Amino acid sequence: MTGAGIEPSIDPDRVEPTSIEPDTKDWTWVLREPCPECGFVAAHLDRADLGRLLRTDAAGWAAVLAQPDARQRPDGSTWSPLEYACHVRDVHRIFGARVRLMLDEDEPTFANWDQDVTAVESRYDLQEPAVVAEELLEAAEAVAATYDGLRGASDDTWARRGLRDNGSEFTVDSIARYHLHDVVHHSHDVRRSAARATVSAYDGNATEYSDAVADVNDGVRAELDWLASVLPPGGRVLEIGSAGGRDALALEERGLVVRRTDVTPAFVELMRSRGHDAELLDPLTDDLVDERHGPYDGVWANACLLHVAREDLPTVLRNLAGATRPGGALAMTLKEGDGEEWSVHGHVRAPRRFVYWREAPLRAVLADAGWRVQDLTHDVGTTGQEWLTTRAVRF
Q1: Considering only CA atoms, which of 152, 153, 50, 31 is closest in space to residue 103?
Q2: Model pLDDT for residues 1-36, shown as the tens digit of each residue
Q3: For 58-67, 158-167, 353-362, which range has the lowest pLDDT when averaged over its residues?
Q4: At residue 324, what are phi and psi to the nearest 5 degrees?
Q5: Which of 10, 90, 318, 319 is the most interior residue, by most CB within 10 Å?
Q6: Which residues lie closer than 8 Å to 27 by C-beta, 6 or more apart?
């Protein structure tokens, strides 16, 4: 089943891209154990969520493809976001066809699909991002509808088998889980573009988001009170992800001095328009140390580091520790769960990328970064989302 992509109009003068080394790994192990890179846990998937997850993932790809660097390869051995998106589109088509074949026939053998040959022959690098976005959304919707149609299906239906030409076996259940991991993992592969798309989502909805979260709930209020209680009067706080500045005002009301920062330009401008000093700052790449005043007494990171890629959070936490005095405090909240996910719900309808954490790995990352956990609680928000609320002290 090669040639699943569209046939692009190829410029004969366009230089052939550097070839990418084919991926020859057998990824079926993700059906048995968690993926350490993207955090996907196949065993935890509720099959009823398949359609929803595939649709939201596709919306995220549309946002990635709208970024100006969609055609750009990060290095000579890695696909561009556009090339990954073409592959994801074709994965939806191929897996959709395979699932339907398994439902229609007894133990069919799948035709071979060489994804690397398809990428070259279909010239993924020359396809149009806007067109690919539409095709990806259409392909995701088609296969999502197939999975939706299996809600309430018998265990016998989910156990129907299909075979690769090498003899390896899938069931409808296992191929669905394998399929979802494939596309979710590729969203992880383009995490830099996903981060930019997430910033763009907030950038276009800064005032609306700030207004929607203007009220401080009891959970946030308790963390504000804790941070103020463990810092000296007039203590200096580095706030990461200030958004519209709500929490900074609450910290100042408790006698603290706050440095407002955000990675989203529109939030920085919004805070400045409200009469506050605010800085554009990325805790992953920017220098956090304040040479004029010395290390901070505390860090406030409420519901913001949940957008940081899994392998980048250790670096961010080390950077924050490096800018904080020994004995200083960290207040941080992250969403609890497995893997990563695009969201098109909540106060911002444009796609945003979220990364979920579990307690044990989060504790390990904090310790390695120089933070001693004082308290880590499991909370449930008003929408039913589970949260990890962390109080930690700098070694």
Answers
A1: 153
A2: 333 333 443 343 454 566 677 776 678 999 999 999
A3: 158-167
A4: -115, 140
A5: 90
A6: 178, 181, 182
Q: Which structure tokens are listed for 296?
A: 């901070």
pTM for the complete prediction? Answer: 0.92
